[in-house]
Amino acid sequence: MLGIDTECIVGVMSVKHALLGLLESQSRHGYELKHSYDEYFTQDKPLNYGQVYSTLARLLRGGLVEESGVEAGAGPDRKRYAITEAGVTDLANWLTKPEEPAVYLQNTMYVKVVLALLSGREATAVLDAQRTTHLRAMRELTQRKNEGDLTDALICDHALFHLDADLRWLELTASRLDELAERVRAS
Amino acid sequence: MNADMAIGIRLAVGRGMGSRLAVVRFVLVVLDIGLCVAVLLFAAAAIDTIGSSSDREAARAPVLDKRAGVTPLSLVNISSAYRGSSISGRQVRGGPLSPVPPGVPAIPGPGEVFVSPELARLLDSDPALRARFGGTRAGLIEPSGLVDAGELYFYEGVDRLPDDRDITTAYAFGDERRGGTTPAEMILVSGVAVVLLAPLLVFIACVGRLGGVERDQRLATLRLLGATAPQVRRIAAAESLAGAVAGLAVGVAMFFAVHRRVDGLQVGNFRFSAADFVPPWWRFALVLLIVLVLVVGAVLLGMRSTVVEPLSVTRDSGAPMRRLRWRLLPAASGVAFLLPIALDLVHENKDVTMLVSCAIASALVAIPVLLPWLVERAVAPLTGGLPSWQLAVRRLQVDSGTPSRVVGGIAVVLAAAVGGQTIITSVAGLHAGTPDLSELQAHRLSGYTDGLYLLSAFTLLAAGASLLVLVVQQLGERRRAVAALSAIGVPWQVIGRSLLWQNLIPIGFGVLVANLAGAGLAVATLHVLGAPAVFDWRFAGAVSIGAVLTVCFATVLGIPVLRASARLDALRSE
Amino acid sequence: MTGALLAAVELHKSFGSTRALAGVSFSIAAGEVVAVMGPSGSGKSTLLHCLSGILAPDEGTVTYDGHELGRLPDAQRSLLRRTDFGFVFQFGQLVPELTCLENVALPLRLAGAKRKIAELAAVEWLERLGVADTARKRPPDTSGGQSQRVAVARALVTGPKVLFADEPTGALDSLSGERVLKAMTDVARASGTAIVLVTHESRVAAYADREVVVRDGRIRVSEWQ
């Protein structure tokens, strides 16, 4: 299996907000939260229970979530969790605040190309190898997208567009290699 | 095979059922071909009328050479004016052994009169006129004794012929020298026929191969889908045939509709009669066949130059510059036809006539063939100017073919009219100096002039219609370009003016070439006939202005289509 | 290459002084989907035209199913296009005078099928591509995505062995493009039709089994599964 990380669509920072969001409509048990999270947001590796409970503990400490009751019965933990006023405010703030556009001004691919040129290696080989790997990944994502449902499609497309951007950069760099080589050698 | 034809016809019908613009285009094509066909049918009939009236004239011309055993018929030609037309006839006196003129059963006895049917009608309706013709009506003159059905003619039997008139003694009737068609007239008649037919054929060919770009694209698609080259040719032929057949039907309908109305119509000295204007069925069929062959032929020929390859779907390559070499052929052959005469190698009247006719035909063909080349070279160095001028010039530089082809047709009409008029004026002048010019010959010559005016007018009308079709067609083809222009804020008036320039520049050259060619033709022909050329510049100017106005008018009529094209939704899809 | 349905060896092609192909070799197996990538002007469309026998290469050979295309007479090549090859271009390949149904039926009719039978097959293909509702419309009255799917239906109606697609989604927005691509590759894979997919977009190329990259008239990268 050619691996690319797609399981972690929701970054570490936002697991907290994801759980808040899931709690807003109704109070839930810890295991319910984990399953809903997995259903909506993950692809390969499910969220582990440890992460669920550590996040909930943090939310409880911050007063964003409260325990709304414990049910009797078997099982490790039968606590229900509900969102607080403060939790709703925090979630609303997070949702309406735009994400910083991620700008990658330093990237490994660029460094590799420049180093290849400096050391007199074939820079196109670097680019071509990268392109092949990228395209392979895209092919796999496309296949997964076409076999899955709408959730899969949207998640895969997000990744595809990013890979596509990388590939465009590779393409453009490939056609400007001579120019770049001159610049690198001159300095 | 049948499937190919079906696809072709389906494509033609599909074009008709498409957008409103496409419908307009299809209807215009059909009407235009129809108009041309109708004019051709009339021409086919008219040639017959000119010929037969000449023959009938010859048949009643007296033979003056003495013949043994014949009592000559003494006759006096009488002619008098009656309400703008002229009544003519003969007072005759003869015996039982005298020759009988054609169209009457016997020589009228003293006091008896034979009249033409038209004169009889006049006499019945006008007592004053009846008073002038005292004799008893012995019968009507049959058509074989009349030049045309509308002629006012009589034979009056008298005891004594008037002393103050020249008395002709006829030993027989039917003198080819006096009344028959002279070689000059033969050249004239055949020339006029060629002149008349050539431009109409050019228009039909132009309109028939309409939609060049679109059609090429369509056929390229068929090639891509695996149609073989012969298959594509069959489909294209069937497609053009559909338009041509519809055009023919309209043309035949127009012919009969007009035919019924022209009966008795008088133009100058020429009087139409429905009976005279029915061409024999074989000639009728020939006209239809020629039109069909021409349309299909033009399409197939056009396809040969733009090779229909599958690739033209995705790529269109610029047309190569026109080559001059083969375009000089018709002009060169025109000169070649005149050479034997100039070198005095040919003496027979018949041969001279044939050679001159061929030369005229070649020269006329040379005009539309040379004009696109000329326009292309002439516009190549042009630049700058107003936006409309610039658009037009650039467009002509890219493709001058379509406008200059029709304009070439108009130029042919012009050249023919100018040339024909010059010849007629000069020949008439020549005859005027000849004392024994019969009245009938004078009548005939002026009839030719009237005919020439009439036919040039008709042909110019057909030319205008064809040009309109081409303007509309071109707008359809360039719909996206026009829409794009209007999208960037170019007012439609500017686009309209550029369209006008696109047609006016070629017609400018056309008028120039046509006048030169017409005058040249006339000089050459008259030189052969041994007559000095008399130029009628007023006529040339009038016809030239007429041609330019025709072009302007056709372009202006295309403006509504332009405005429709300039609407931005044309940018969408396709 | 063994097992190749269509193979080109050392193709050279120039247009005037412009060199479009400078020694390209290529092969595709039956049922395979291969993307031909490269920037515009790299020669990828020319490669497609040479592979399909529309253009004759200046040098080199193209072999389809054991036949060298350059040696076949025009009628034979026409026959191939009619029966074994299908084409989809960026736009403009539908005949605007005909309805979508008639467009799809056209290749069958050119091959001599009766109208009824050809149109029945056409309806089926329009349905398979999800554009059955366009049957009575003329191409200018349909959306870009619809007409491309009609074009795909027309290309596949004869059950070709190879489908040549040149930027089939070039004129479409992302979503319509994706739908056309999915429909095209799904249907082709189901019927075992190989696709030569020319594109400059990696997202389009990702629908293929593998890709070759043409740059300056040469194949730069050729990746095998």
Automatic annotation (TrEMBL), chain A:
InterPro entries: Tscrpt_reg_PadR_N, WH-like_DNA-bd_sf, WH_DNA-bd_sf. Residues 19-92 form the Transcription regulator PadR N-terminal domain. It comes from the Bacteria. It holds the Pfam family PadR. Signal peptide: none annotated. PANTHER family: NEGATIVE TRANSCRIPTION REGULATOR PADR, TRANSCRIPTIONAL REGULATOR YQJI. This is Transcriptional regulator PadR-like family protein. It comes from Lentzea xinjiangensis. The lineage of its organism: Bacteria, Bacillati, Actinomycetota, Actinomycetes, Pseudonocardiales.
UniProtKB/TrEMBL annotation, chain B:
GO terms for cellular component: plasma membrane. InterPro entries: ABC3_permease_C (IPR003838), Membrane_comp_ABC_pdt (IPR038766). It holds the Pfam family FtsX. The keyword Cell membrane applies. The chain crosses the membrane at residues 21-47, 186-208, 241-261, 281-303, 324-342, 354-375, 406-432, 452-472, 504-527, 539-562. It comes from the Bacteria. It is found in: Cell membrane. It is a multi-pass membrane protein. It comes from Lentzea xinjiangensis. Keywords: Cell membrane, Membrane, Transmembrane, Transmembrane helix. This is FtsX-like permease family protein. PANTHER family: BLL1001 PROTEIN, MEMBRANE COMPONENT OF PREDICTED ABC SUPERFAMILY METABOLITE UPTAKE TRANSPORTER. Its main location: membrane. Residues 192-301, 454-560 form the ABC3 transporter permease C-terminal domain.
TrEMBL record, chain C:
One of its GO terms (cellular component) is plasma membrane. PROSITE patterns: ABC_TRANSPORTER_2. One of its GO terms (molecular function) is ATP hydrolysis activity. Coiled coil: none annotated. Pfam families: ABC_tran. The keyword 4Fe-4S does not apply. Residues 6-224 form the ABC transporter domain. Gene3D superfamilies: P-loop containing nucleotide triphosphate hydrolases. Keywords: ATP-binding, Nucleotide-binding, Transport. This is Putative ABC transport system ATP-binding protein.
